[in-house]
Specification:
The chain has 377 residues and is α/β, with parallel strands linked by helices. Helix content is 36%, strand content 16%. The longest helix is centred in the last third of the chain and has 23 residues.
């Protein structure tokens, strides 16, 4: 049996995903997966807990060098160790960016549709912002760069990206990255790129490109990265920002270890273990997620009221239900025993996001339940 076919009960684990709804509801909403972590991660935790003290912990030189090696191997991105800022999560990084890098009078650009913390970060910092859009081109969601350019104001200072995109699944190409960097340089914009799904690219011919890889290190770019999603340990959070520009890096990190805590001791252990020993598990995961993506695509294609663009990356399907014209679709799915993420959360009312990071038997059962709702329309 494929290890990812294993059915693991998450009842009585205080799971955010599984505890929100009734026990008979299949939760395909929040973005964590139902898969056991790689053995190397469990072994690393077991070794660490043999020492009975869990004090404040910093990133070791070994840890920093492991990140350097990982980024070089995965993306051919050579970085310096002092470019790294360690944070508890990418979400923390989004909020730190808005709060620490913008003056009160400055304006930002964020994607739409988008993971809701982009909006929350700007609302929390009380800065004005505009949303740039994605448009469908050749069955792929692409940033409308011409429209983005028109949104830039004299006081625009920050451009926030999500690459790979959540919820649309797009992986930006070399050309798109170059165009975005050129636009930012022309207008002296800081680019903050959420790259948490960088290692969840499902198309083997695509390559993730960190935002700062192809530009001068003094340019104002920052990548927010983490292995939490890829290796499925978001409950033991750790992330890092890659910020080559020293002034930008210091400004970003000014409230780290005050309002924002550093990562905990076990987070360093699991992240290091994933980088050093998780590759075989990761390859198997991607193969399984590709199968699940196909299962979801076949299901969407079987219903004339649903549409889904090609998903380059992530385990999050972005499904267009406009043709159903059902304003209570999310509630109907829930009544049928499936919880999904409503499109309103991302700024697109007629869509919904479905997490297919689960075993195939459960995924198929959920889709069967959802079919009964779709077929009533």
């Amino acid at each position: 049996m494929n290890r990812f076919d294993q059915v693991i009960s998450r009842q009585n684990t205080n799971s955010v995903r599984w505890d929100k709804y009734a026990k008979d509801v299949i939760p395909l909403w929040v973005a964590d997966m139902d898969f056991a972590v790689a053995d190397c991660i469990t072994e690393a935790l077991e070794r660490r807990i043999q020492h009975p003290i869990y004090g404040y912990t910093h990133a070791s030189e070994e840890f920093k060098e492991a990140i350097q090696d990982y980024l070089l191997k995965r993306y051919q991105y050579a970085i310096e160790k002092d470019w790294l800022v360690f944070i508890p999560s990418v979400v923390s990084g989004l909020h730190m960016t808005a709060r620490n890098l913008l003056k009160p009078s400055e304006h930002a650009l964020i994607p739409s549709p988008a993971y809701h913390h982009f909006h929350m970060a700007l609302e929390g910092s009380q800065n004005a912002y505009s949303t740039y859009s994605y448009r469908l081109q050749n069955n792929r969601w692409v940033i409308d760069l011409d429209a983005m350019r028109k949104l830039i104001l004299p006081n625009t200072r920050l451009l926030m990206l999500c690459n790979p995109h959540n919820p649309g699944g797009t992986v930006l190409s070399t050309t798109e990255i170059a165009q975005i960097n050129a636009l930012a340089q022309e207008h002296q914009l800081i680019i903050c790129s959420d790259e948490i799904h960088a290692d969840l690219i499902l198309d083997p011919d695509l390559q993730h490109i960190p935002i700062g890889k192809e530009v001068d290190p003094h340019q104002l770019t920052m990548s927010l990265m983490s292995l939490n999603k890829t290796f499925n340990f978001p409950g033991i959070g750790l992330g890092w920002a890659v910020i080559p520009n020293a002034n930008l890096r210091n400004q970003f990190a000014k409230d780290l270890h005050t309002l924002v805590p550093g990562p905990n001791a076990l987070a360093f252990e699991v992240s290091l273990a994933a980088m050093q020993g998780g590759e075989a598990w990761h390859v198997e995961l991607l193969n399984y997620l590709r199968q699940n993506r196909q299962i979801v695509k076949n299901w969407v294609d079987s219903h004339s009221g649903l549409q889904m663009a090609h998903l380059d990356a992530t385990y999050l399907a972005w499904i267009d239900a406009t043709l159903l014209n059902n304003k209570q679709l999310n509630q109907d799915f829930l009544s049928a025993g499936v919880a999904i993420s409503p499109g309103q959360q991302f700024g697109s009312n007629d869509f919904f996001r479905l997490n297919f990071g689960t075993n195939q038997a459960l995924l198929k059962e959920a889709l069967d339940r959802m079919s009964k709702v779709v077929e009533k329309n």
